[in-house]
Here is the input.
Amino acid sequence: MRSQIVPTSSSQVKRVSRYPGILRVKELKLLNRRTQARAEWRCLLSHYSELDIIVASRLAQKMGWHDLAIQGISKTNYKDDIPLRFPLAHRDSVLLNAKAQHLHPAWVFGIIRQESAFIEDAASSAGALGLMQLIPETASIMSRKHHIPYAHNHALCDPKLNVRLGALYLKHLFKRMDNNYILTTAAYNAGPGRIPKWLPKKTMDADLWIETIPYYETRNYLQNVLTYIEIYQQLLDKRSILAEVLSPIPGKNLPHTAFKGSHRTYG
Here is the structure.
């Protein structure tokens, strides 16, 4: 990677931090009016210069608002500012739980980056919550199986709990998908119940198989996560794992019982 951090001066940071729009975002976040804060952020991005957007994005990341930083830098031509676009947020939780479940941390980071862009209270129309966008039913089953306290759905907005349960679910899917990273990632997005319909008649290279998936959302999801895995792997220890991740897709020879379950549910 050719990471290029855009240089900014202390005077630029001081100036942008005093902009009314930035002050409004700060106040709204402090009042926990996050939806309004994000709306304000989107509005100010349309009026700021490119340099001001970069400075504002850096301010947002410094305050832990990684999704705003990602959204901001994406509006500029500086796509090589890797630390802004791909933060190692919640690093301790990701490393701890990835190690506990024998998962590659870069994979977990890639899932989080794609699922929520590090929005801790992210909520989808399907009811998925938190960093790893867990369906409450799935989270509840994982918590009971592993004896983890889980009082209510809102608890999934706690990053530590979300990553812990998300890593457990990812490991659960990994076992069901015959330890295949691509099938597991597809199942995480589309649900394990759809995977048997998409398996090739005979073993196929993973990159080719991805192109055969009938759902654009899942194809795009896999392509993004693969990219993010490689980026995060480079940030973590510079040892590529793509050869391992892109292992061939087996033909229709996995046990049918491995695929029971609907979209993002435990099954």
User: Anything to note?
Assistant: Residues 10-85 form a domain with the Methyltransferase, Methionine Synthase (B12-binding Domains); Chain A, domain 1 fold (CATH 1.10.1240.20). The radius of gyration is 20 Å.
